[in-house]
Amino acid sequence: MTKQPSWQKRQVDSFGKFRIEYGTPNVNLSGERVYTLMAEGTAGNSQLGMRNDGNYDIRVDQTITITGAAKGSSPTQGNGVVIQSIAGGVSVTATKGKITLSAENIDIIATDTLNLKGSKRINSESDMHFFDVADLKVSDKFVGNNVPKDVVVRDAGFLASCCAGTEVNFQQ
Predict the structure, then answer these.
(1) Which residue, of 60, 79, 103, 114, has the greatest Cβ tally within 10 A?
(2) Where are the domains of the chain?
(3) 168, 146 Cβ separation under 8 angstroms
């Protein structure tokens, strides 16, 4: 028989549609709670609080908005919103939706490896693509849309490196 949790340490302070609950031994999806702030609105509810394992949860029924540099000018440190993990990663998941990044410029910087993976395809649309790489390798799985003997590539520079060892007519 499993041990039943003790509810004696649980306390609730209720202020109408807002309440503070702490010491909840309830073992549910997110585990035992140290404290939880809960609010009820006409279009949804929200909860935020800390679990017994040290994790912090924010849950809402609608949208979470985080706004930085709200006065309309750049902050002294440069970024209006910073999401940081000292040890570990940062994961953004949209289980039933899409993730959109929108800005004047977007920099994705990896100090080691940047991996892009699409289960079906990766689309890229731009007026210009610029690749500044020392070595560009194409997988043997890539056959592209070329017709054998349709394109002739001279042994010179970037295109020759890309087409070496493929079905493209490579003159030596």
Answers:
(1) 60
(2) 1-66, 132-172
(3) yes
Q: Could you report the per-residue pLDDT of 65-108, keeping only the tens digit for each? A: 999 888 888 888 788 898 999 998 999 999 999 999 999 999 99
**Structure pTM?**
0.61
Tens-digit pLDDT profile for residues 114-162 = 999 988 988 989 998 888 888 777 776 666 665 555 555 555 667 667 7
| Neighbouring residues of 69: CB distance < 8 A, sequence distance ≥ 6 | 75, 80
Cβ neighbours, 10 Å, residue 30: 16
Map the chain to HEC letters.
Answer: CCCCCCCCCCEEEEECCEEEEECCCCCCCCCCEEEEEEEECCCCEEEEEEECCCCEEEEECCCCCCCCCCCCCCCCCCCCCCCCCCCCCCCCCCCCCCCCCCCCCCCCCCCCCCCCCCCCCCCCCCCCCCCCCCCCCCCCCCCCCCCCCCCEECCCHHHHHHHCCCCCEECC
- Cα(78)–Cα(69) distance, integer angstroms: 9
Whether 80 contacts 69, CB under 8 Å: yes
* CA–CA separation, 30 and 36 (whole Å): 12
Integer Cα distance of 14 and 20 in angstroms: 6
